[in-house]
Amino acid sequence: MLSPFRGVLAVLVFASSLSAHDTWLSGPATATPGHSVFFDLTSSGAFPAPEEAVDGGRVARALCRVAGRKAPLEAQPGVEGTSLRLLGRGLEAGVAACGLSLRPRTLDLEPGDVEHYLEEIGATATIGERWKALPEPRAWRETYVKHAKTFTRLGTKDDPSWSKPLGLGLEIVPLADPTRLRAGGTLAVRLLKGGRPLAGQAVRASQGGKAPTFATTDAEGKASFVPEAEGPWLLAVTELRPGAAKPSEWESDFATLYLTVAP
After folding, report:
1. 182: Cβ–Cβ under 8 A, 6 or more apart, which residues?
2. What is the dihedral of CA 53, 58, 61, 67, to 10 degrees?
């Protein structure tokens, strides 16, 4: 199958049942300035179809920023379905950069499932070697934090604040206005960990029904890709590292960026 991507990129996957399971925040590509805007947070193994609503109690921090001003992104209680509904109130004209971080969780994997998981997130050549070097019997316990981000254009006002990071623990920052992205155009991004460029990071880029493409960020944490078809696109990164306590314990941050590509 031909890949819908050309070039290089930086991104995420999550395996909760050892299939690709991403968590992403989505919203409208455009909205009316001054009005409330709804966003949806979901986890799914079949992007872009929503599958599983995230518990609102897991949201540690959520916000939107437009024209340099921040506004809370509020989880809506009592809404059931395949996604958690969040509300941005009265967002002014500009480009809304909206994102959130979830509280940490811990996952245990069976040893026989680890290699498949590492293959899915592009970590076979790095963490995979560390894993194989551990003495038997091996165990895997991972504590992870998820971060998700998206953009919505409100009106036609020029608003360069989209280029500034929101301050998420792991974050994909576009280097060109993401609300102007069209099929066949180029989107460059920078991956930041704790506000600093993250180099040498394995990558995945996805479109519904297409095989994912992997790449690696450069020395400045930069990567770029060319979406060849319109519709929803997911950029995702899994930054996985050994834990400090035991060789069998691991820590990770996941980051996603949801974008809508125009024709």
Report:
1. 230, 261, 262, 263
2. 0
Q: How far apart are CA 44 and CA 253, in angstroms?
A: 17
**Whole-number Å distance between alpha carbons of 199 and 193:** 10
Q: Which of 99, 90, 28 is nearest to 60 (CA)?
A: 99
For 78-93, how does the pLDDT look when each residue is reduced to its tens digit (9 = 90+)? 777 899 999 999 999 9
Rounded CA-CA distance 4/228 in Å is 6
In a domain, 143, yes or no: yes
Question: Is residue 1 in some structural domain?
Answer: no
Phi, psi of 260 (to 5 degrees): -110, 120
Domain count, the chain: 1
Listing DSSP states for 133-155 in one string gives HSPSSP-EEEEEEEEEEEEEEES
Phi, psi of 161 (to 5 degrees): -65, -15
Per the DSSP assignment, residues forming a β-bridge with 106 are 143
Task: Domain of residue 138: give its range.
Answer: 7-261
Decide: 207 and 22 in contact? Cβ < 8 Å: no
Q: What are phi and psi of 92, to 5 degrees?
A: -80, 180
- Whether residue 2 lies inside any domain: the answer is no
Strand partners, 38: 87
Which pLDDT value is given to residue 20?
A: 52
Q: How far apart are CA 136 and CA 139, in angstroms?
A: 9
Q: Which residue has the tokens 């500009």?
A: 94
Tell me the pTM: 0.90
Report which residue type is found at 191: L
Peptide bond into 50 cis (omega under 30): no
